[in-house]
Amino acid sequence: MDYKQTVTTALATALDGQLTADEIAAKLERPKTSDKGDMAFPTFTLAKTLHRAPQQIAQDLAEKLDTTGFEKVEVVGPYLNFFFDKGAYSEATLNTVLTAGASYGTNEDGNGGNVPIDMSSPNIAKPMSMGHLRSTVIGNSIAEILTKNGYHPIKDNHLGDWGTQFGKLITAYKLWGNEEDVKKDPINKLVEYYVRFHKEDVDKPELDDIAREWFKKLEDGDPEAHHLWEWFRKASLQEFNDVYDELGVKFDTYNGEAFYNDKLAEVVQILKDKHLLVESQGAQVVDLSKYDLNPALILKSDGASLYITRDIATALYRDRTYHPAKNLYVVGSEQTYYFKQLKAVLKEMGVPSADDLHHVPFGLITVDGKKLSTRSGRIILLAKVLEESIKLAGEEINEKNPDLANKEEVAKQVGVGAIVFGDLKNERTNNIDFVLADQLKFEGETGPYVQYSHARAESILRKAGNVDVQAAGNHVADPEAWDTIKTLADFPAIVKMACDELEPSVVAKYAIRLAKTFNKYYAHSKILTEDADLPARLALVKAVSTVLKESLRLLGVQAPDEM
Ligand code: ARG
């Protein structure tokens, strides 16, 4: 039952073709509180074309309007306020949710189109930063949202596993490294060597030459160089996978930068054939002045490839392999300029999906006021943040619900959920200071709050036992129930909006809104009273539980039944 549609149609008829349905729909507003109606049509902007005062227009429209299906339509100044037929609307909404279950809100807009999502993409031999966490959870949620909208996402972890830094790392390891140490604590040790390299090469520039040689060897397939690289990569990946397991994030492919090594020659060839490569101080660049961008450096003077060279090969590969409907790169805003260059080069090359390349940027994150950077040594290890969060969640649960059966499991769901939700409720591009204690609160706009609301709904249903829930629309005299029902009805539009904007915060904010309205309802009504409306009230609770759980799932957050 689509009330926006009903309102639009009624108005279109009354306006006699003076506005199109889309124009009308765009003007419709939602009154802040339900006592002012459920949808409002302002008439100010029509005054000019209709040569009448807005109040008069509202009056005239009200007289002509077919009000079937509405409880009433009121004229308040320049507004037409529509009141829905609450009983019918409630019943229809709840029936839709309960029949569809978890698939409520699903649509087929994407037509199964492939959408590679470049996400997470940490660098080998470096700790995964909070930035990579953001990319991981944002990318993961966008993938769920795309699936819900009928697309076929491909989650690709574009590991930073190639580049001149591996020459430095091998050099450092050969000079100061120790196999046992690396085996015990791979990433930390490798970082230590790398940091030492940068300290020492200030006075010993010859180190850089050695590093360059090692990288060249690596590129040429030298067995020792390759063996070390492979070992560093594997050990790092194991640590990364621990974090992914904790977050419950899975990837379809791990095609890191190195995967494209044998595909770089073709890129250079295409660029040459299209006369796009020019020499500049011995290096090969693509001029991008027509895009108002600095030239893209494709090959260094020694012939070494760069980050962008590998990204061009990546885009070409994805283009051919997936014929993508969209091409997403979930990468921090600091690389915005870079992605403009990448897109420009691809356009020059004539790669078909270049126009559908979207950099999906996000802001910086600080944890408890502290910045994260590998160089400064002030690294807040992601794994540590997760661990801490799970511990704190466990303490909270111990206090609130000491008899809970699977406490450890739930602590993990809540601790991890708090971090994921705490990130995703912010608009992507905002910078955020992440205060762990705040994100873990069971009250306020947090993951645990939404999870707790879902658990509360489940607990009501458990207590009710085998009552046959029925979406009869006879209990909505209660204004909180009515607000909850309208919020439930918004979900399909939320799913679409989150997809159009590639913005998980749309879903997170919605989940908070639904949890809040539901909790108000819960506080004001005795849901479990044994009367004729009990099955109808339970239908509402069941629908809320379903939609809260599904919203959390779209964010990559678990919804325990008890907590
Ligand atoms: N490894 C890079 C970093 O940590 C991110 C890679 C992003 N993806 C890409 N296709 N460039 O900054």
UniProtKB/TrEMBL annotation:
Q: What Gene3D superfamilies does the record tag this protein with? A: Arginyl tRNA synthetase N-terminal domain, HUPs, Isoleucyl-tRNA Synthetase, Domain 1
Location in or out of the cell:
Cytoplasm
Residue span, DALR anticodon binding domain: 450-563
Known catalytic reactions: tRNA(Arg) + L-arginine + ATP = L-arginyl-tRNA(Arg) + AMP + diphosphate
Q: Which CDD domains match?
A: Anticodon_Ia_Arg, ArgRS_core
Could you list this entry's UniProt keywords, alphabetically sorted: Aminoacyl-tRNA synthetase, ATP-binding, Cytoplasm, Ligase, Nucleotide-binding, Protein biosynthesis
Q: Which family does it belong to?
A: Belongs to the class-I aminoacyl-tRNA synthetase family.
Among HAMAP family, the record links this protein to: Arg_tRNA_synth
Quaternary structure? Answer: Monomer.
Q: What is this protein called?
A: Arginine--tRNA ligase
Species of provenance: Levilactobacillus angrenensis
